[in-house]
Amino acid sequence: MTVERPLEYLRSLLQELIRLPKETEWVEFKQNNADPKAIGEYISALANSAALLGKQSAYLVWGVDNTTHEVTGTGFTPSNTRYKQQELESWLLQKITPKIDFRFFEFSTQEDTCVVILEVQSASHTPVRFDGTEYIRVGSYKKKLRAFPEKERALWRVFDRVPFEQQMAAENISTDEVLKLLDYPAYFDLTNLPLPDGHDAILSALEADRLIQRSDSGQWHISNLGAILFAKRLQDFNSLKRKSMRLVLYRGNSKLETIRELEGSKGYAVGFEGLIDYLKTLLPSNEEIGKAFREEVPMYPELALRELVANAIIHQDFNMTGTGPMLELFDNRLEITNPGVPLVDTQRFIDSPPQSRNEALASFMRRIGICEERGSGIDKVIFQTELYQLPAPIFERTEQHTRVILFSHKEFKDMDSEDRIRACYQHCCLKYVNTEAMNNTSVRKRFNISEENSAMASRIIKLTVNAGLIRLYDPNANRKTYRYVPFWA
Fold first, then answer.
1. In the chain, fewer beta carbons within 10 Å around the N or the C end?
2. What residues contact residue 380 under an 8 Å CB cut-off, 6+ apart?
3. 71 in helix, strand or coil?
4. Helix, strand, or coil here: 361?
């Protein structure tokens, strides 16, 4: 079952896991404890807890201190471990029911410290058992599921709710119809797999990724996941007609006059690059932005556009009918809206662990390189807006939607207090999650304020403190060494 992952991916995943504030019910840290029976019990417990928490995967990590989350290294090498005259993975496979996907990854950090990550697939339709017994995580402890009937009931309720991605967009159709409705060459291209010869091999690959499913009648169902990602035309699927991305270009800064409106038709995976390219053609360029650039640059950084559009697609509430994700382009701003209120406070987008209504969609979009599933996407957006010296974006919750607003370049003198406070808060959050200090110097750099005007940076910091968004880290420190952290730190 060993599956290769890029080293960069594994190191990035490790950093995301150790940044969690404490051990969670879907992440367990070990150093050298490699008892095969205990590993089997953890696979059961983590798979069931991941399902209960709505996670696509759970993780058991060797080489990390359980208390401090310091990477200490491990001597455990599952590829060389045998138990009862069998390879460890083979023995575990025989003991785990129903069969789920779990994968050991052995790698070294940049400091050449050995680490092992066991990635465990979430339970899907019934609790996962090891050697006939079901386990669950309670806090940071592994327990038998039957000892916690309330968790067992909750787990079965989760299984009773079929996720959107596993519901069917088309049922009992022929092989020819499947290949007509789905852009299957794009699937193989985006997943870096060779296009196989013959329909049977193509269908087997699509089925393995749960994009299609064999029906009892010998025909095929297309899942919502398959259609929403790889439909040639979303309009061919009744339940997904209104889920295509709409792009509206307005004249000026209001909605009074529409210049152009485009409604996408392709599945998200198939049409994403084309959407971003088209959006870029509509955006004017700035000749110069502060001191960061001395040549024409796009009005908005492409990386920020990609992350925010991907987020709008992935985090939307597909149960809301008659509405879909939308891009609205004005002279002075870009608004990106998706159905569904955010699952975390908008003030905590930068630091919160990722949560998604659509775990399978998020996982596949990460797999093909369209998005970040591990929570670093908003960090990148904030970093890019600072690099381009743009006003800070707005993240807001409406009654039924989530909206992000990117603003075009604005001189510092033209920013009002709200602009400056929002930018200072987001700058402080970005510094904090990167374990760096926010101080007068960093704020001056953020706003391109000269050193002789440091008092201006101090006034911005004071305004943000008074707004309750940041606080002084150590009130007893020397004034010259003041540094600030977000209010939630």
1. N
2. 303, 304, 307, 372
3. strand
4. helix
Question: Alpha-carbon distance 283 to 330, whole Å?
Answer: 10
Which domains, and CATH codes, for the chain?
Answer: 7-160 (3.30.950), 164-239 (no CATH), 244-410 (3.30.565.60), 413-486 (1.10.10)
Q: Which amino acid is at 264?
A: G
Question: What's the rounded Cα separation, in Å, for the pair 300 and 313?
Answer: 19
- Report residues of the chain scoring pLDDT below 70: 1-5, 23, 56, 216-217, 285-296, 353-354, 372-376
pLDDT at 296: 63
| C-alpha torsion sign, points 460, 465, 467, 469 | positive
- Phi, psi of 292, deg, nearest 5: -75, -30
- In angstroms, the CA 281 to CA 7 distance is 35
Residue 216: what pLDDT?
65
Residue 78, preceding peptide bond in cis (omega within 30° of 0): no
pLDDT of residue 4: 53
Q: How far is residue 307 CA from its own chain's centroid?
A: 9
Q: Using CA atoms, how far apart are residues 378 and 356, in angstroms rounded to an integer? A: 14
For residue 105, the model assigns a pLDDT of 92
CB 382 within 8 A of CB 426: yes
Which pLDDT belongs to residue 366? 87
Q: From CA 472, how far away is CA 302, in angstroms rounded?
A: 34
Which uninterrupted H or E stretch holds 430? helix 417-433
**CA dist 119 to 37, 47, 50, 58, Å?**
17, 10, 11, 6
* Most distant CA pair in the chain, distance: 77
